[in-house]
Model the fold of this input.
Amino acid sequence: MLLLTLSTYSIGKMGFDGTVVVLFLLLTTFIKGTMIIRDFMGLKGVSFLWRAIMYGWLWTICIAIAVTYVISQF
Done:
């Protein structure tokens, strides 16, 4: 998780931009979010409803950011 954080920080500091970079950052964010939900929040063994709510929220945010970025490119 630390390596994912450092990679996103490095990309921001180097000033990279573009669709590929944004998609990479969103993928990194999704992976980190999944790890947080599963391990740090302890939702690995809870009912499906709670996991669906949390993963659904993560998907919703990542998709909203991606759609907003793509729309802003036009």
